[in-house]
Amino acid sequence: MLMHKESEVNDVVSFADESGISKGSPCYTIGILNVPSEYLDEFNFKIEQIYKSSGIQGEIKWEKIRKSSGQINLCLNILKFVLSSPCTFHAIAVSKAPYHKWHRDEEAAFYTTYNQLLNQSSKGLNANFKVYIDQKSTKYPKQDEVIQIITNHMLAKLPTSSKIELVSMQDSKLHWGLQAVDILTGAVNTGYLLYFNPKSDMQMAKKLATFRMASILGWDQLAYDTRPNNMFNIWHFPIETRAIPDTRDIVPNFAVPNVSRAEYEVITGS
Fold this sequence. Notes:
By secondary structure, the protein is an alpha/beta fold. The chain has a single domain, classed as Ribonuclease H-like superfamily/Ribonuclease H (Nucleotidyltransferase, domain 5), CATH 3.30.420. 39% of the residues lie in helices and 20% in strands. A six-stranded mixed β-sheet has the order 5-4-1-2-3-7, with helices on both faces. Mean pLDDT is 89; it is low at 1-7.
């Protein structure tokens, strides 16, 4: 007997990272990239191809997007690939000022939003998730186990058969997924940061990458939140920041060109 697709339980590998936690940033973002387990090998192959064509040395990280068209194009190509693949990206972009818990206990507030994002990105999917988190220093060494327990408790209250089977802190050097989600999460946080402070002091390459990635999403700036979709989701938090500056649909524009070396040199004057 054939099962209806919505009743099937699938296996998903999720890769999670954060950006903007440091002092002085008005916002932080946590991102999760959901990759169907059956697609993981092809996903790894594609990200490795993008990496090899970029000219970047060592690990892929948003922090490294500093001074070349190749670095910018790495970001654009990762985003285009994710949008055209069975993968789904989810991010919670948090404005620190109105988030009261942040001012009482930053670590607890951070993991509260982590739990909420895991819950938001997994509910309704009828899937078993293995979640790999980029290693982060924490006051509580068993925090990954706590996230798993709390998130499953939250999911148990929802009409879904999704379950978080594993939450494990991993070395990002060993996972293409952690490196890809680092780029996407860093870009979303940078776009939100530029909304708060358009004159923020950062490398021109990051600004160019952020605005060109916004164009790929069909936007003029990477500062909006989204309605739920199966490609690229941004959720502004706390609730009073929703739809600020606006809520937009994702309208992928794969015709957005990469940045040539000559164009980069003209824009940056280098």
